[in-house]
Amino acid sequence: MLLSIPDVLTAEQVAHCRQRLQHAGWADGRITAGHQSAKAKDNLQLPEDSEVARELGALVQEAVQANSTFFSAALPRRIYPPLFNCYRDGQSFGFHVDNAVRYERGADGAAQPVRTDLSATLFLIDPQDYDGGELVIEDTYGMQQVKLPAGHLVLYPGTSLHRVNPVTRGARLASFFWIQSMLREDSQRRLMFELDVSIRRLTREVPEHPSLVQLTGVYHNLLRRWADV
Ligand code: NI
């Protein structure tokens, strides 16, 4: 399932991120690329341990954790600390699949594995301010091109082949990260998301309907059966 989630960041938060990123110390994006994807990758990235990456990463993580659509679609178990990248002057990232497991360094130096069930890209520049830079994702239904307003996020299965088209004018700034979900399978996450959306709509429109209690029970009992926590 490929899902766009609007307004994950407010206009003020987007402006703050852009202002901080403008003066940040960018590095070659190959620092986090796997062996295979390093050949396809040409962009700039903030080093994970930089102060700006940590500060803005915490801001993004807090925003997604407060977003009910994100929670419902991802059912996150672990979120890899958000990273930041920049494409400009024709830079691009050819077709690749992200590494299956990322290791998050804890405060004690121990590495915590995060299985990348889902990938997320949070756009920080409005589409009219740069040319190219579409995120192209191979979905079950074919190729999807994604280029969202600043502050919006796209969530897609970590199993997907994807690329970023060359940026031929301006600069494309984004935050990107991975999520280990309580549900490993995309098909299960999709079912749970559709069930949750339906329950929420019924709760708004027919709040007294007795079947709502039963349906909510079905949701939680399916989650209990499938969840890996
Ligand atoms: Ni990727």
TrEMBL record:
<feature type="binding site">
    <location>
        <position position="162"/>
    </location>
    <ligand>
        <name>Fe cation</name>
    </ligand>
</feature>
<keyword id="KW-0560">Oxidoreductase</keyword>
<dbReference type="InterPro" id="IPR041097">
    <property type="entry name" value="PKHD_C"/>
</dbReference>
<feature type="binding site">
    <location>
        <position position="172"/>
    </location>
    <ligand>
        <name>2-oxoglutarate</name>
    </ligand>
</feature>
<dbReference type="InterPro" id="IPR006620">
    <property type="entry name" value="Pro_4_hyd_alph"/>
</dbReference>
<dbReference type="Pfam" id="PF13640">
    <property type="entry name" value="2OG-FeII_Oxy_3"/>
</dbReference>
<dbReference type="InterPro" id="IPR023550">
    <property type="entry name" value="PKHD_hydroxylase"/>
</dbReference>
<dbReference type="InterPro" id="IPR005123">
    <property type="entry name" value="Oxoglu/Fe-dep_dioxygenase_dom"/>
</dbReference>
<dbReference type="GO" id="GO:0051213">
    <property type="term" value="F:dioxygenase activity"/>
</dbReference>
<keyword id="KW-0408">Iron</keyword>
<keyword id="KW-0847">Vitamin C</keyword>
<keyword id="KW-0479">Metal-binding</keyword>
<feature type="binding site">
    <location>
        <position position="98"/>
    </location>
    <ligand>
        <name>Fe cation</name>
    </ligand>
</feature>
<keyword id="KW-0223">Dioxygenase</keyword>
<dbReference type="InterPro" id="IPR044862">
    <property type="entry name" value="Pro_4_hyd_alph_FE2OG_OXY"/>
</dbReference>
<feature type="binding site">
    <location>
        <position position="96"/>
    </location>
    <ligand>
        <name>Fe cation</name>
    </ligand>
</feature>
<feature type="domain" description="Fe2OG dioxygenase">
    <location>
        <begin position="78"/>
        <end position="181"/>
    </location>
</feature>
<protein>
    <submittedName>
        <fullName>Fe2+-dependent dioxygenase</fullName>
    </submittedName>
</protein>
<dbReference type="Pfam" id="PF18331">
    <property type="entry name" value="PKHD_C"/>
</dbReference>
